[in-house]
Amino acid sequence: MLVMFRSQFIQQTGTVSANLAAIGLLLMGNSTSVFAQTANLTSARLPSGEIEADATDFFVGTWKLDVATYRNSSRSTWKSRTINVQNTSSGYHVSMNGVHGDGSPLRFTFDAITNGADYPVRQTAGKLYLDAIALTKGRNGPKEIVFKKHGTLVETNQVTFSSDGQQMILSTNGVANGKQFTSSSTYKKTKDAFKQVPDPSF
Question: Phi, psi (5° rounding) for residue 70?
Fold first, then answer.
């Protein structure tokens, strides 16, 4: 009788232990699932690359053309070209002062926002080949600058900045005197920033 009771007790104890072990495994499995779901929810809330410090606007400052780097398939040249870029509260105030290879000047200014819309260009010297400009926003300034005249596309400039913001490379496709051309040029920054100017009335 004692032996039978002891045997039953051992069997019941073993069953209880097995049940406890099963419950433990089940809880661990649920915990793993909960952790996995939490990780998935976190991933959903924080997509890769979404949370980062604001990018620096490299475009603002004074840029001088490195004449030695200028290449143009139509063989036009520049003796000098300087671009001054100032911040407004919503965009840029830009002035360009250049001298062509033949000595003729070209100066113009414009105010624009990087929203892809056309903004008027104001000529101050030389034969102007554009009357409107459009800027497309990039990470460190405009990534594309489009020139137009009387609503017709004249130039498309792809803009690339060096990692330290001290060089700006323009890769251009355009039309001059009825002929297609390509050009590339590198500008070097000589002054970092200007005091913000009042926002123009667009």
Answer: -75, 125
CATH number, span 61-191 = 2.40.128.20
Q: What is the rounded distance in angstroms from the CA atom of residue 41 to the CA atom of residue 47?
A: 10
Domain boundaries, the chain: 1-52, 61-191
pLDDT tens digit at each of 202 positions of the chain: 433 434 444 444 454 444 444 444 434 444 444 334 433 433 333 333 222 346 789 999 999 999 999 999 988 899 999 999 999 988 999 999 999 999 999 999 999 999 999 999 998 888 888 999 999 999 999 999 999 999 999 999 999 999 999 999 999 999 988 899 999 999 999 976 555 555 555 4
> Which of 123, 116, 120 has the alpha carbon at shortest distance from 98?
123
pTM: 0.68
Structure tokens at 177: 């005197």
Q: Residue 17 to residues 14, 22, 47, 201: CA-CA distances in angstroms?
A: 5, 9, 45, 80
